[in-house]
Every structure is written in structure tokens, then in C-alpha cells.
Amino acid sequence: MARSSVDGTKLEVRDAPGLRRALLAWYRKHHRKLPWRDSRDAYRIWVSEIMLQQTQVATAVPYYARFLDRFPDVAALARARRGDVLAAWAGLGYYRRARHLHEAAGVVVREHAGSVPSDPRAFAALPGVGRYTLGAVLSMGFGRSLPVLDGNVARVFSRLTAQPVTVKRPADAKRLWDLAERLMPRAAGSSHRARLPGQWNQALMELGAMVCTPRSPRCSACPVRTHCAARARGVQHELPPVPGRRAVERVRRAVACVWDRGRLLVVRREGALLDGLWEPPGVELSRGEDAGTALGARLSELGVRVPLADSGRRERHTITHRLITVEVWQGEAPQPASRSTATRKWVSPQREASLALSALAARLLAGGASAGAASSTDPASPQVRSRVLRKRRGARAEARAPRGTAGISRASRRA
Ligand code: SF4
Questions:
Q1: DSSP string covering 288-308, please?
Q2: For a pocket test of ligand 1, which of 30, 156, 206, 239 has the largest count of ligand atoms closer than 8 A to its C-beta?
Q3: pLDDT tens-digit map of 71-81
Q4: Superfamily for 16-238?
């Protein structure tokens, strides 16, 4: 990655007041009409901002509507079972976001009488709230003069200042946040001015998403082109510097689809990306490792003894930089299955409809991994089918997530 030419110095833009006027005027006229735009309901803004981290706007819109139908306010979200929240999130990926949002709603109800706190310290103390979320929710919901910095804003700043800075480099991120702070309009008095901080933050992100795009900035249509140092020097296509891509990691995995009288065995996944979701028990395989033996050992840990056979089916999916090939094995329980527990369940078609399944599990159920699978995914059931289609779309969104991002980055809000 190229180093900043003047590390440590302040980033400066040309004529900050004129830049603000031009960008705000453009935003008011040209911004996309999105369901969360122009809302002053801090809860709705919060939900949208969490969804938009690592998710494209077009993907998030239908999820946003369904999520708010189901959990229309903080109290409803706090009351919900975690499994129901994850089920409403299923397909969006990065499930830690949903878990944090759910936990935070509980704190808001217990400690803030059910109202999203407008105090920056109180809001920042909630689970899953980083500096980006703090600035976005409090500026748009309460008119607080708090900045945001995501990938779009960082790119716009790099070009406006003609500096090779990137949010992925901590020293640069500090300078970018400093510029974002200095450019923030101050809210005061009238309701018009109270909306300025939120509009300003959205205007910067909208410019990055719609005009100052990564590969093809539309400089001739840009409302702030006269303030742009990169355009003046003809270097806009070289900025910001592109960090080295994380190498793709190929992963081999095997799952066991074990059936007992039409019910499929699923276990709860743990870890940052699929935390709390359910799918058939599986193992990650090292080079040359025998899948049948490894799966047999995994099932023994769960107290399940079933002869397994390789179905020959292979599923491929991508999560961040990991390209995963899944070998699907199957078996039929010879005796009535052991009981379900908190981390292990036998899922019937009726139960499946209310369980937060991983995208892979939904595909396995949809594709019919065995005779049992066929009976579990009743093709006549529109409920199951539409749910599976939603998960497939979500799985594709998951696969489109930026490479090289192992967790949720505040700087990765998507256009
Ligand atoms: Fe981006 Fe071009 Fe506008 Fe500069 S003039 S901010 S490079 S779109």
C-alpha cells in the first residue's frame, strides 16, 4: 500500500464553507429516496445503519421493511427471542450485528426507559456501537454534530485533498476522522439547522456512492468538482491507494445430513460470522483428511451414532475471503433420535419455518440431500420456498461482501 505523502499533517479541503453549501444543495435535490431517509426515528435509523454495514442498499431494503414489521420499536426488539431476531436477519450475513442490536435493545429498555439515548456517551456504551454508528444515528436522529467515516467518505476525502490516504491504515484513519470533525456543520436553533449534521453526513456518503465511485468517478457531474484537488491534478483515478488484497483461502468442509423420520439434525454454529445460526453438524477438513471419519467423530461428540455415506453432492459458497467447498454426507438414524437440546435440534418442516438457518442449511433443505430431505422441504409449501429463496439471495449478498474483511468494519458501509 502506498504511504501518505505527508504523514501526520492535517488534511485540508479548498473553501470548506463553499464545499458544504454545494454538497448540501446537491444532496437535497438529488438524493435517493430510501425508506430510512428523512426519518427522525432514531431506532429506525439505527436498524438501517447496522444493516448497511457490509450490505448493499438494494439487498438491505426488503430486509429492513420485514425487520421493522416484525420489531417496530425498541421494546418489541428487546422482547423478542434471539432466535427470532436471527431468523429475521437470516441471509444478510455477519450475524453478530443482529445479536448486538438485540442486546442493545435490551439495555435501552432496562436503562433508558425504552428511548434510544441521544447522549453520545450513553449511546456509545451500547453493544455493537462504534464511532461510525454513533455519528450516523445521533446526527440523523438527534441533529448531533458527530461525523461519520466509512469507505465512501474516506474515498471522497482522499480525492478532495489529493492525498493517498485510506481508512484501512490507522494513521490515515486518524487524519480522516479529524477532517470529518472539522467539516461538520454545527446544529443550532431552528429545525432546519438541527437537520444539518445528519444531512451533511448522508450527503458525503451519497456522493461517494453515486458520483465519486471507486473506479469511475463522474467528475463532470460532481457538485464539488471546483473544490477537488485530485481532479485539478488529474489524479482522481489513482486515489485512494488500493490496499493489497487478502489472498483467497480455499477451505474444505463436510456436513452430515442426519435424518430421523423426516426430521433433520441441526446444531448451533458459533463464531463471528454465523454465530447463533443452525445447520447440520459439520467439520472443517485438513488436507487429505477423511470426511467420513471426521464426521463420525463429530457425531459421536453429539451422542449420535449413524452410518454415513457420501451423497456425492458438493456445495460451494464464499464468506469474506474464504472459498468453501462442502461435501454433503447423509445418514438415517436407525433408532428414535435423542432429544433436542439448547445446541442441538431435530427439525421438522413446521419447526424449520421458525428457526434461524444458515444459508447453507437452507440450500441443503431446498435441494433435498436425501429422501428425508425431500420430505422436509415440501415443495408445495410457499412459506418454506419463499424463505429459502430469500436466504439464497442473502447468501449471494454474503458472497459479495468485500474481500479481506473478517468481521464488521465501521468503514465498510456499502453503497
Ligand atoms: Fe470525486 Fe471527481 Fe468529485 Fe473529485 S471531482 S470529488 S474525484 S467525483
A1: T--HHHHHHHHHHHTT-----
A2: 156
A3: 999 999 999 99
A4: Hypothetical protein; domain 2 (1.10.340.30)
Name which residue sits closest to atom 7 of ligand 1, judged by CA.
236
* Angle made by CA atoms 374, 377, 382, in degrees to the nearest 5: 140
Assess whether pLDDT exceeds 80 at residue 197.
yes
Query: Please, where in the chain does CATH 1.10.340.30 lie?
Result: 16-238
Expressed in angstroms and rounded, the spacing between residue 64 Cα and the centre of ligand 1 is 31
Nearest residue (CA) to ligand 1, atom 4: 228
In 155-244, the DSSP E strands lie at none
Residue whose C-alpha cell is 437535497: 28
284-336 pLDDT per residue, tens: 998 889 999 999 999 988 888 899 999 999 988 877 788 889 999 999 987 76
Q: Compute the distance from residue 148 Cα to the ligand 1 centre, in Å.
A: 19
Rg (Cα) of the chain, in Å, rounded? 24
How much is the mean pLDDT over the chain? 83
Query: Does ligand 1 come within 6 angstroms of the Cβ of 230?
Result: yes
Given a contact cutoff of 8 angstroms between Cβ atoms, the answer to whether 397 and 62 are in contact is: no
Mutational test site, ligand 1, from 205, 215, 236, max ligand atoms within 8 Å of CB: 236
With a 6 Å cutoff on the Cβ, whether 224 touches ligand 1 is: yes
Distance CA 230, CA 41 (A): 37
CATH superfamily of 249-400: Nucleoside Triphosphate Pyrophosphohydrolase (3.90.79.10)
Q: Which uninterrupted H or E stretch holds 154?
A: helix 151-161
Catalytically active residues, by annotation: 49
Cell of 216: 469511475
- Threshold 0.85, pTM exceeds: no
- Bridge partners of 216, per DSSP, are none
Strands (E), 291-369: 309-319, 322-332, 344-347
